[in-house]
Amino acid sequence: MAEPVIEIKDLGLTYGTEENTPYEALKGINLTIDKGEFICIVGSSGCGKSTLLSVIEGLQSATRGTVSINGKKVTGPGVDRAVVFQNYSLFPWMSALQNVAFAVYETNKQREKITKKDSVVIAKDFLKKVELCGFEDSLPGALSGGMQQRVAIARAMACNPEILLLDEPFGALDAKIRGNLQDLLLKLWLGDESKKTVVFVTHDLNEAELLADRIVLMMPKHIHSILDVNIPRPRVRDDVMESKEYKALNQKLKKLFYDDIPAFINEDEVNI
Amino acid sequence: MKERIINIPNVLFVLIFACFLFPSRYAVQMRLGLSSPLVFIIVLFVIEIIFIVQTGNPGKKQAVKDIVGFIYLFLFVWELVVSRLNLFPYVFVPAPENVFNVFAEDYRTIILGFFSSMYLLVVGMTTAMFSAVILGTLVGWNKRLTNAIYPVAKAISTVPPLIYTPYVVLIMPTFRTASLFVIFLSIFWGTFMGAINNTAFVEVKIINSARALNLSTPVILFKIIIPFNLPRIINGLPIHLATALMTLTAAEMLGADAGMGYYVRVSLSFANYTKAIAGIFFIALVVTGLNAIVDVIRHKLIKWSY
User: Does the beta-carbon distance from A76 to B214 stay under 8 Å?
Assistant: First the structure.
């Protein structure tokens, strides 16, 4: 029934050339992600979760193994994927509207004909969806961090990719705004007919539990375990927090997350 | 209200006019060699109007007062010491009336010189800036080209253009091509190296953001990297302008037949210091005007910072 969209097979990535001592960032990663799935990759800093995402983005290439999307091997970035980065990565000389419209125009140009006017109409629509009416002409520098990430989400969604890749998008925001944006992201994702596949990297366990269908727990270099999240959708924050499934999952995840860390720290000490 | 009329600049303004009431020893000694003070008076009124208009701006009020006060003090002392008391040999230290009168007498030559200089400056600067930014961006995008070309550019750029200006003026067919060439070189290398650096070390998040959109290389170069680097390029303009002007006037002093620097040089070689000083004043005025224009361009184009 489920059709796989992203297939990662025996993926490995080693940094460094002959001159430097090689550093292994990823080792033996195997993961299959189905169409329309919401996957969260969690792990502590430096475990390679962002590196894994950038390989899926096509911004870095693996040294071993493959990532395929719909059966095609990934060799670089593509319009089937859109990315939201952690550090606000809007173009600072373009207004909010221009940022979105530029991305819509440039990515659609590669697939079909689109006029600049149409791209502006689409961009306006998506800025409305992320509740940024009235800020169309503001430059990113004049927007708060949360607003910039809203624009970045609008930009990614407006390009209408099959896959949405988010690299700790709410990592630098305060708890309240982070909550708002999590709700907004879920709403947009559920409301979208094309059922986008989402890969969301975070170090926040609660965020992962609220958002994901499956949680991929990474320990340095490799995938430690994959957990199913059986909380029914649509999820309402307060109800989810109170539910039994959530509490059980939370405990399990915390145990996995914190118990194994000392072992890995010891292992890392040898390398350093 | 009182403060707006009675202040140091205005007192000095009146004092300068008071000077005109006293007999001029300069005129006596030079047998009526003192020109009509009309242009000088016009200049004084222009300064006063600018002063009144600018003091309406509360943020700049004190600075404007100080600057205008200083200018008036200078003109007052000049008028008093030279025109009225004639304390210096009049051949070497001309009277302010005479210097300002040059603008009325010689305005044709001065304006022609202005256009000649501006043509060289604008053409030389724009071609140098455009070609340096475009070539530098292309080179900076390619690691191999960067590694090969940057050290060479660095070596060449250390030679000040003023050193080889005489030679270039000598070998080029016309003075115009020679000065264009020298101005071009004086700006090109620095801007070129800056563009290579800006491109090679452009912020990773901007490049990743652009690459994630799967943009083609020309789009990345011309719609992402150059706009991203534009504030740095524009911020370098005042320095480039100063360099270009220095090179231009130096070139004009060597072999031109028109221009602002040429005017000063010719006046000096005929020992006409009155004209030479007027020419220097004019250059200062033009530079100030150009810098103001650059500032306007900067504010129009750059609405964001890094």
Answer: yes
CA proximity to B20, closest of B44, B50, B52, B46: B44
Distance CA B76, CA A234 (A): 83
The closest alpha carbon to B185, from B131, B145, B238, belongs to: B131
Q: What is the pLDDT of residues A176-195, one digit of tens each?
A: 888 989 999 998 898 888 88
Q: Are B101 and B40 in contact (CB under 8 A)?
A: yes
Q: Provide the percentage of residues in chain A whose pLDDT is more than 90.
A: 45
Instruction: Tell me the C-alpha distance between B83 and B98, whole Å.
Output: 9
Angle among Cα A111, A117, A121 to the nearest 5 degrees reads 90
The answer to whether the CB of B29 falls within 8 A of the CB of B86 is: yes
Using a CB-CB cut-off of 8 Å, the residues of chain A touching B229 are none
User: Nearest to residue A40, comparing CAs of A231, A226, A270, A193?
Assistant: A226
How far is C-alpha A95 from the geometric centre of its chain's CA atoms? 24
Note the pLDDT tens digit of each residue in B234-289: 888 888 988 898 888 888 877 778 899 899 999 999 989 999 999 999 999 998 99
Cα-to-chain-centroid distance, residue A259: 26
CB contact at 8 A, B125 and B298: no
Above 70 in pLDDT, residue A268? no
For A214, list phi and psi in degrees, rounded to 5.
-135, 145
Instruction: Tell me whether residues B228 and A92 touch, CB distance under 8 A.
Output: yes
